[in-house]
Every structure is written in C-alpha cells, then in structure tokens.
Specification:
Elements: E1 5-9, H1 37-44, E2 56-66, H2 76-89, E3 95-99, E4 104-107, H3 109-112, E5 113-114, H4 117-127, E6 133-138, E7 140-141, E8 146-149, E9 153-157, H5 167-175, E10 205-209, E11 224-228, E12 268-269, E13 275-276, H6 297-309, E14 329-332, E15 337-340, E16 345-349, E17 356-362, E18 371-377, E19 381-383, E20 392-400, E21 413-418, E22 429-435, E23 438-440, E24 444-451, E25 455-462, E26 468-476, E27 479-486, E28 494-502, E29 507-515
Parallel strand pairs: 2-3, 2-4, 2-6, 5-7, 6-9, 15-21, 23-29
Antiparallel strand pairs: 1-18, 8-9, 10-11, 12-13, 14-16, 16-19, 17-18, 17-20, 20-21, 22-24, 24-27, 25-26, 25-28, 28-29
Length: 518
C-alpha cells in the first residue's frame, strides 16, 4: 500500500508596519479594506447577482511556517481544531472549506515573523498555489493576529488560532469581500487625526489609508479613501461604513469585551448625537472571541455571491466527502510493551471515511506537552525512526479527511524502548510463530514451535492495557510441535500480546489481532 508520511519535528518545549513589541498584544486584524468595486456593485442590486441553494465547497492551501532550522511549526492538531471552528463559523452561510492538496511546511525565519505586510505579500507571491485561498500560519504577521491581502492570501498568527478563536473566519470574511463594520476607524479615527472621543458626536465621514489592501498591489501611490459614518437610525446604511443595513453602527477598532447583552461596554455617539453600543456577535467586529459567533444574513448573501460571481475558479470541486465516523483502534505496540528502540512499528485500525491520520509521539503522558514528533500519514501504519533507549513514549492517533476535521484523538498508549539485543531469546527453540495472528473473538489460533530440545513454554495472553487474560503451559518436544489456542468469545476487537516464557527465563512476544467478527 502506498503511504504518505509527513514528519513535523516540534520544539520541545493594519496595516501595521511595525511588529508587536515583546509582551504587547497583537492588533486583532491588519486588514484595512474599504468597500471594493465588486461589493459596491453588488450592494446596489444584490438581486441581479447569481445565487445557489447548495453548499459551496472552497479549497484552501495550508502553509505552516517555521524557523530556518525547521522548528516551531503550528501543531497540526491545533490546525485541525481551528479548521473545525472555521467550518462551524461558516455553517449558517452553507460554505464549507477543505484542504486542497498536502499541508505545506516552509522553514523561513524571516517570513515566520515578518515586520511588514509587503514582506508577507512577497512570501505569498513566491509560494501561493493557484485556484485556492492560500492561508499562512506563522509566529508574527506584522504585529497582527491576521490580515488578508486581496491579491495574495491570508496570514494568521498561531497564537490567535486556537479552537475558541475566530481570526481565521474573520480573515476569510475579508477574502470574500466583507469589510469591518467600522470602516475608517481602524486607527482610532480619521486618517491623520488624533483618536476620537466617543462622548462627542462622530464626524459625518472618516478617511483611511488602504494603500496595500486594494484588489491589486500598488506600492508607489498612497491611497486614501473616504467612508461615511453610519447613523443609528439607519438612514444612510446602504452607503455608509460597510454598506450592510443589518450590521449596526460600530466605531470600535480595538479588541473589546461584551456585556451581558453581547454589546460593547463603550458608549459611542453618532454624528446626530445618538448614543449606542456595538453589536459584539459579529465575527467581522473586534469583539472578543467569546462573544463573536456569526455573520449577518446580508454578509452571508454577499460572500456567497462573491464566490459565485467573482471567484468561480474556486468552485471547481463541489464533491461532498462523507464525515469521518468512529475512532481508530490502536493495534501495536501493545500498551506498555517493550520494543527495540530502532524497530518501532505503529499500527492501528482505521476510522470510517478517514483519508489521513495525525500521529503524535510524546515523552509525556499529558498531551500535548512533550510532543517530539508529529506525522501525517495516509496509511494505518507507521515506522518510527530510532528513538532514545530505555525511555517510555506515548502515542495517539487522530483521523480526518479534507473536509472533516472535528474528530477526536484516540486515548494515548505507551511503549518502552529497549536495546535490540536486550530481549532474551528462547533456549533451544529454533522458530516460534502464531498462525493466524488475525482472527475473530472465539477463533482458534495455532502455536507452532520448532525445538531442538525438550522444554516447557508458559504462554500468557495480555490485553492492550497489560492485563493477563489467558495462560497455558505447553510441554515442548524436540522437532515440530503444534498447539491450539482457543480465544475467549467475548474478547473485544484490538491488539493483544501473547508472551511465551521458557524454563530458562527466555521470552518471546507475538502480536495477535482480534478483529470485529461478522
């Protein structure tokens, strides 16, 4: 069987052109986009744009950045958790994102912590995969949690990409034409002016710099645009701010916490002197991640129309994958088994509809701490490199496919590494095998022994968690010996260890797999 294995070594362990200082919280979003030409056309006559009643499947190319020496990559387990949150965030929009091709790993310290969005643009121009939305996870995207460059891709800070974060969804909202509800307030107020005092009426319009966030990159011209400030009475909602009438006024461009009503604690004052609080449920706002949870219906309609009208090149594969169901069953090594340090083969029984498996190996039982190796494989077995001798390692497996990432990891199991010569051979036994070694519960295996002398063998069947289940003693004669080993009919499916010990203290272990009976 062909196997794809990607190994990721882990460390044990806006436009804002300036990096976040040590200990300083990153800016929530570096994107300063206005209503682009497409969105303005759409909002003038949304009924004239294409519509669809089916799920739209959108391909993402995932780039994980590390240092020059290949350390510090975003954990694939955290990526899968973030992907799960992303698709949950877009569930109401009936848009589902999927991984196109392999997850790509880039070892480049400068790109991993770049000081300016133009550096990020250069990274994307060099590495982007065509006909996908390219998403880069890295240590510091120019001092922001994330930003979207309409002509290039999305950069996302690893620390802003946990399962409870909505940064990825926020930036993909930008990628599908949706601006902030507070257009023009990103730097606290109108371009070139001091931050606004929210107790005072807001100006009728604000100006803002969106030089690097147009649909195409123009680097030799400063581009300043104007946005009308939205009124509480909604009278200018069709052309002010983001142009959506179901997103209420919002002038807050710093991270803020919600009150019990999911609104901002900060009172703002519109140009007519009417006070209000911002809606914290909108993912495109800067409310904290515990509060943000939705796109508005008008935002959803615009994102779907943007895909159908402006980005149909992304909709080349609308095949729905079946959800991953069930959980892998770890087969070998048996839990707490001694294995030669340089001959470690991991095996597990696959989960239904899974095409890939994330395998994690750790020195600590408290995952994810101590993870030393991560592998992405397309098979249900993996041979590890030589590990340290006389150490206990823990491992676990998580299934997924390109569209479904909300999957559980198996409980971890352990193995102990031993010197290859430290396993004591059976005395006087030329060969010992168990046939078959894959059979259903209640089946009968045969122990075949070719011996040079008379001896006795004690055979003990151990469960995956190390409990002794069955044991027998066999009288071995010179020549060929065959003994039946009937299995208990109630044995659950899984990997078992049959350990044979002779009268001289030699021992030999063999795997026995109990399969689900049909």
């Amino acid at each position: 069987m062909v196997r794809l294995a990607v190994c990721i070594s882990l460390v044990l362990f806006l436009f804002s052109a300036t990096q976040a200082q040590e200990g300083q919280a990153p800016n929530p979003c570096g994107t300063q986009m206005g209503r682009n030409a497409w969105l303005k056309r759409y909002q003038q006559a949304p009924e004239s744009f294409p519509k669809s009643n089916t799920t739209l499947y959108v391909p993402l190319t995932i780039h994980l950045l590390g240092t020059d020496s290949g350390l510090g990559y975003f954990s694939v387990a955290r990526l899968l958790d973030a992907f799960c949150t992303l698709n949950n965030d877009f569930e109401e929009a009936d848009i589902r994102y999927f991984i196109e091709g392999d997850i790509l790993f880039l070892a480049n310290s400068f790109w991993n912590s770049h000081p300016d969005v133009l550096d990020g643009a250069a990274m994307m121009f060099e590495n982007n995969v065509a006909n996908t939305i390219n998403c880069y996870f890295l240590a510091d995207p120019a001092g922001n949690c994330g930003y979207n460059l309409p002509y290039a891709g999305i950069a996302i800070r690893k620390d802003c990409s946990d399962a409870a974060d909505h940064t990825w969804a926020h930036e993909l909202g930008h990628a599908l034409s949706i601006p902030h509800p507070f257009i023009g307030w990103e730097n606290g107020g109108s371009y070139g002016n001091p931050p606004h005092n929210y107790n005072n009426p807001a100006p009728p319009f604000v100006t803002y710099d969106y030089t690097y966030f147009k649909d195409t990159l123009i680097i030799d011209t400063l581009i300043i645009d104007t946005a009308f400030v939205e009124l509480v009475d909604g009278s200018n909602c069709t052309f002010a701010a983001d142009g959506f009438c179901d997103t209420s006024p919002d002038y807050l461009a710093d991270r803020w916490d919600c009150n019990a009503n999911s609104e901002s604690s900060t009172l703002q004052t519109d140009p007519l002197g009417v006070q209000f609080r911002s809606d914290g449920t909108l993912i495109m706002s800067y409310s904290n991640d515990l509060c943000a949870n939705r796109f508005s219906p008008e935002q959803i309609a615009a994102m779907r129309a943007n895909l159908l009208d402006e980005k149909p090149h992304l909709l080349y594969n609308q095949t729905a994958d079946a959800p991953v169901s069930g959980s892998p069953v770890i087969l070998q090594p048996a839990n707490a088994e001694n294995v030669p340090f340089n001959q470690i083969e991991l095996q597990w029984q696959g989960a239904q509809n899974a095409t890939h498996y994330l395998v994690q190996v750790s020195r600590l039982a408290a995952f994810p701490s101590g993870i030393t190796l991560e592998y992405i494989v397309t098979d249900t077995q993996l041979v590890l490199p030589a590990l340290d001798v006389n150490k206990t390692y823990y491992w676990r497996v998580r299934p997924f496919n390109r569209q479904f990432h909300c999957t559980a990891t198996t409980p971890h199991q352990s193995f102990h590494t031993a010197e290859a010569t430290s396993l004591i051979a059976l005395s006087g036994v030329e060969s010992l095998q168990l046939v078959p070694n894959l059979l259903p519960a209640g089946g009968v295996a045969t122990l075949e022994v070719l011996a040079q002398r008379h001896t006795s063998l004690q055979a003990i069947l151990f469960s995956p968690d190390g409990r002794s289940l069955q044991q027998r003693i066999f009288d071995i004669h010179p020549g060929t010996n065959r003994y039946e080993l009937p299995l208990d009919a109630n044995l659950p499916a899984g990997l078992y260890l049959l350990q044979c010990t002779d009268d001289q203290g030699g021992r030999h272990g063999m795997k026995l797999v109990v399969a689900n009976g049909e």
